[in-house]
Design brief:
Length: 245
């Protein structure tokens, strides 16, 4: 299987980048997208060139490190699939694939396909901790949580912070990420003591980081590898209004 790869190469944050074309003749349909980049890097190293820098860690769709724009779509456009779980069987022999980093003011390019996503971490830090003293593990039924609320909280907690929602949004908004973090705690009794302070602090930090605002395009939901609904953003807005008043 032969693939033609147009990959964004940028030496550092303060230098201009460009798309460079490489041909990989040894790709296999059973390779994941990241395995394909590994093979390309081996080819480049043998040729005496710098390998392509890209983020990765678990390669199991859990950690959220592997975000790439593939043919203009975050994570490649396959529904509820992170880049590391995208396989070459979804491409055709001879295809030309364009690979770029996340594009957002709040995500400066570090090198090649690697971007600095610590802005998301700072939003999390702004939310703080819950003040409930847990001590040893409590009895499971000591704090009843209605099953619909527990299920919804787990759905929102599935967010892996990959930043695909930011990359896909025309406004580079982090609203879906922030909403998922706010919503899953607001649905559980453990998150209630700091409920108002949390949503105000996190939304303020989101604006400080330079993320845009949500205008309901829905692109974030479409590319989220965990399928998080934009219903979370509606909940974020309600929480924010209640916290203000």
């Amino acid at each position: 299987m032969q693939l033609h790869l147009k990959i964004w190469r940028q030496p550092s944050v303060d230098q201009l980048g460009q798309l460079r074309t490489y041909t990989l003749a040894t790709a296999h349909p059973d390779m994941s997208f990241l395995e394909m980049l590994d093979v390309l890097n081996e080819q480049l190293i043998h040729a005496g060139e710098d390998p392509v820098e890209f983020d990765h860690d678990c390669r199991e769709g859990i950690c959220g490190s592997c975000g790439l724009m593939i043919n203009g779509k975050a994570h490649g456009g396959k529904q509820e699939t992170a880049t590391c779980q995208l396989y070459l069987r979804h491409f055709q022999d001879g295809d030309t694939i364009t690979v770029e980093p996340w594009r957002a003011q709040a995500f400066p390019v570090v090198k090649d396909l690697v971007v600095d996503r610590t802005a998301l971490d700072r939003i999390m830090v702004a939310g703080g901790y819950i003040s409930v003293k847990t001590g040893s593990a409590p009895e499971a039924n000591a704090l009843p949580v209605p099953k619909p609320q527990a299920d919804q909280a787990f759905d929102y907690a599935a967010c892996i912070g990959c930043g695909a929602c930011v990359a896909a949004c025309p406004n580079a908004s982090a609203s879906l990420f922030t909403a998922a973090k706010v919503a899953h705690l607001s649905l559980l009794p453990q998150g209630h003591p700091e409920r108002k302070a949390r949503v105000l602090a996190m939304t303020e930090q989101m604006a400080t980081e330079g993320f845009g605002d949500c205008s309901n395009h829905g692109e974030c939901q479409a590319v989220c590898p965990k399928g998080i609904s934009i219903d979370a953003i509606a909940r974020l807005r309600r929480e924010y209004l209640m916290a203000q008043f």
